[in-house]
Amino acid sequence: MPRGQARGRRARDVLTDVTEPGGIDLDVTVGDFATTVVKGSFTLVYLAFNTIMNLTTQAQQVACFRNAATHLEPGGCFVIEVGVPGLQILAPGETIRPFHVSETRIGFDEYDAVTQSMTSHHLEIVESRAHRHSVPFRYAWPAEFDLMAQLAGLTLRERRGGWQGEPFTSESPKHISVWERPLDEGG
Ligand SMILES: C[S@@+](CC[C@H](N)C(=O)[O-])C[C@H]1O[C@@H](n2cnc3c(N)ncnc32)[C@H](O)[C@@H]1O
Question: Which end of the chain is less packed: N or C, by CB atoms within 10 Å?
């Protein structure tokens, strides 16, 4: 099973736990995370596991940063975990990067460097038949996300290469970035 699906299932299990009678007492809002408004302000807003890339236009990603920022209290943080575009791994002129090849599963990312779109293709081979599942994404460099944060009035507090606090380097395949809503917005 593709890793994303496994995680999605876990997320659904959590949703079931919190919505069933006797479940955890938690407010759940289902909606588009680029535009949905919930009551209150928060110390933390986060999007893990490449989820920002599910927004497939720059305008939607910018809207998401703005939406996150409006839900933060001063000093609160917006955190994303997202892959660094794998363009350095591509040979000149190539657009395809395999991420899993086995007898029963083939996975590859297809890059379009003009539109910054990236499609992850998953092919599962069951009894000699291939079942395809393709997911569209929009990739961006960390610097573009920093600019989105700046447009939303946030400042970069920290960027790490992993959840264990690994340094972010030119070889990091992903980053965990933390932007903060300034305490004193009067400047
Ligand atoms: C990469 S998966 C992460 C799943 C889960 N959050 C986890 O970490 O295990 C991204 C999820 O975001 C959902 N999604 C995509 N675009 C969305 C949007 N604009 N608003 C709300 N959810 C969205 C997808 O359906 C998918 O379940």
Answer: C
